[in-house]
Amino acid sequence: MWSCLHGCRRLLGRLTRPLIVAAILILTWGGMLAASSTGDAPQAGPPGQDASGISAQARAQIGALIADKANRTPVQRKIDSQLLFAGRMARREAIASGVQTLDVSVPMTADGRVMLDVRADVSDVLLGQLRGLGAEITETWPQYRAIGLNIALDQVEAIAALEGVSFVNPKPERIAWGRPDTADGRSREWIQQKEALIARKRPSREGLLSAVQRAIEGQAPGTNVGSKQSEGDATHKAANARTTYGIDGTGVKIGVLSDGVTNLAMSQASGDLGVVTVLAGQTGTGDEGTAMLEIIHDLAPGAQLYFATAFSGISSFAQNIRDLRTAGCDIIVDDVFYYVESPFQDGQTYTSQYNGAVVIQAVKDVTAAGALFFSSAGNSGNLNDGTSGTWEGDFVDGGAVSGPIGTAEGGVGRFHSFGVQTYTAFTTNNTNPINLYWSDPLGTSANDYDLFVLNSTGTTILGSSLNIQSGTQDPYEHVSGSGFGSCTGCRVVIVQYSGSGRFLHLGTNRRRVSIATTGETHGHSSTTAANSFSVAATPAIAPGPYPSPFNGTNKVETFSSDGPRRIFYNSSGTAITPGNVSATGGQVLNKPDLTAADGVSVTGTGGTFPSTFYGTSAAAPHAGAIAALAKSRQLAATASQITAALVASAIDIEAAGNDRDSGVGIIMADTAVGAMSTAFTDDPLVVGSTVVKAVHVTELRTRIDALRTRFSLPAATWTDPTLTAGASTVTAVHITEMRTALAQAYTAAFRTAPTYTDPTLTAASSVVKAVHIAELRAAVIALE
After folding, report:
1. What is the CA radius of gyration of the chain?
2. Are 293 and 218 spatial neighbours (Cβ–Cβ below 8 Å)?
3. Are 472 and 45 in contact (CB under 8 A)?
4. How far apart are CA 188 and CA 613, in angstroms?
5. d(CA 6, CA 131)
6. What's the confidence (pLDDT) of residue 654?
7. Which fold has domain 230-376+527-551+591-607?
8. In this model, does residue 390 exceed pLDDT 60?
């Protein structure tokens, strides 16, 4: 994650202006409060504070900020409000009348320059102008109208004034879902770090004992490769699948995106990883990626592994997804979320201020091209377990901020009512950003909302976000919470600056709030793509079932994010339900899709990552590895066929059926791989009427070669090795070759080869029939 307050303080300190805390009032939308949790009742509070819980002083501060927003210059209207606030404080200027300072966090370099994501038409002329202002260009993505750069804070307005620049953002913050917070706000993994470091220095007595226990219970052994083995191998019965079906992921390419693979070589040296192809320049920093690769290698040791960082920026993340598919990856797994990602738009075929759906679009594009994509559902909690930090619902008018406030756009400043009061309060806290989104399409929002955080008494603004939405901007506001990260009881307020009511999503990112709803899972883990999966987490180790398999009594982790996801816009920005963008409109997606293991052993190589891996970051690679095992049994299987096998394998947990916490349930490797034995095109064939196609032969050849590999035979040599669907004619020689190659596999397996209709086929004269294909399919399945 980007550093928050500390980085900004370093910069502003150099500019002789310290950052001081101010309040963030988050204005939320109403409607769905029936699903909310324990809300505070309205209270009178300190003198001058009415039943809304917001004092006259705070109302005046909000009014001053809104009035200042209306008076921004055309250049300032192209700059994210957090950058404007940071610049004013650096220059020792008041942010607004009566508001001297706010808590602002923007990403900084070590030498005190601000890191920016500039939306612009990329050209050599513009890049030269930026360098002339002292900018260090870090990346350019013309297809996303994106330029990444580092520059002195006092040059931000000069950048915004350049021709071709449409908006200047702080470089978007992101998070990897591998470090779930406990109730006291600490990372669960770092609590265990000391124990993990000690554990790596001694033999794993527990691992030896569990291996013996599995043998006694008749379970198949693990891969026994390297110093650590994921407990998910046993709980998902992946080891059983490998032994029963003689598969290990061979022939499948899997790409992983996370923070980095800094100590990849150490994991390879210990035998916990084999060859990993890292895309050029995409090593990243950190080792959550290494840990994810280790999980996949434990379950599917024969798979070819690839990696690219997702931490360089949202445009880079989107492109790396595409590049992994271009490299041939059949399965792609990630565990990263950018806070700007839209909850409400299913992709983005154009550019906008924050490009909040370009990663969603990349996921849809690679799955349309045949890949399967597995993404972490998130670690931001769920309503059922009382851990939600989310509020979703329609805007409800909670009254004027302080009477009509004149603005250039006719805004009057209306509070959002959460049902019983005009704020929701933190019951636990951290330093992650707070985000507000609403149901307008990206790049065309004309409904303007602002976000505020107040202190626990409702008297002072600690932080705020006041971007302008006048018809060409994104429906998004964000406040970073470094300075109020310890403020349990701080109040989040949402204000409608101008425009009409919309459906709102308030995400506090692993906090818990006093008034909460369902619906946290969003972004690229929640697309409409049929072969894209949002993965929830359930523990493998205690309270999980290890060393026994998962069963119907297991539960998702209390931090695992819930659904459902309601979307309102297609990737083009067109409405799914024109005229209805409220709680009764749009399309509801059942998210997350499925559940897999976390709480498993990895090496923690280099000491940069814990050796017990919790979070949906661990669940996603388990799911991807199971998909790889299924595909390795039937390499010609389509993504849809593998998806069907995964869904059919699921053990139903939590609420009956497909539920908002676990999806279809916990997927199981042995069942999923077993289902692949019937994954043939045109199954069953109708003897006497089905026309034999090239694809029927291609599928059989792939599975026959897989059987030959299992029984230590070389791959067969085929006449017409490449058959073209719709063009190549299937001949008698193709059938004869497959019979011969399969008979050799039967001999190697000490099995009697089957007999066939028309046992002797004559090249160029015998007619190939559906029965010949059907018999070969049956023979393959019998040996598998």
Report:
1. 28
2. no
3. no
4. 10
5. 27
6. 97
7. Rossmann fold (3.40.50)
8. yes
Question: 174 near 154, Cβ under 8 Å?
Answer: no
CATH 3.40.50.200 in the chain is located at 230-376+527-551+591-607
CB-side neighbour CA atoms (13 Å) of 48: 11
Structure tokens at 174: 């992101």
Provide the token pair at 418. Answer: 């959460």
**Per-residue tokens: 140:** 């350019």
Q: Report d(CA 95, CA 92) in Å as an integer.
A: 9
Non-local CB neighbours of 130 within 8 Å, separated by 6+ positions: 118, 137, 147, 149, 151, 159, 162
Does the N-terminal peptide bond of residue 142 adopt cis geometry, omega within 30 degrees of 0?
no
Question: 523 and 358 in contact (C-beta within 8 Å)?
Answer: no
Give the pLDDT confidence score for residue 138 in this predicted structure. Answer: 96
**Spatial distance between the Cα atoms of 439 and 445, rounded to a whole number of angstroms:** 9
Tens of pLDDT, residues 279-335:
999 999 999 999 999 999 999 999 999 999 999 999 999 999 999 999 999 999 999
Structure tokens belonging to residue 637: 């299987």
Handedness of CA 146, 147, 148, 151 (dihedral sign): negative
CA dist list (Å): 188 to 224, 286, 535, 678: 27, 18, 20, 43
Q: Which amino acid is at 226?
A: G
pLDDT (0 to 100) of residue 209: 37
Each residue's pLDDT tens digit, 109-127: 999 999 999 999 999 999 9
Q: What is the pLDDT of residues 551-591, one digit of tens each?
A: 999 999 999 999 999 999 999 999 999 999 999 999 999 99
Average confidence score pLDDT of the chain: 87
Whats the size of the chain, residue-wise? 784
Token pair for 291: 């840990």
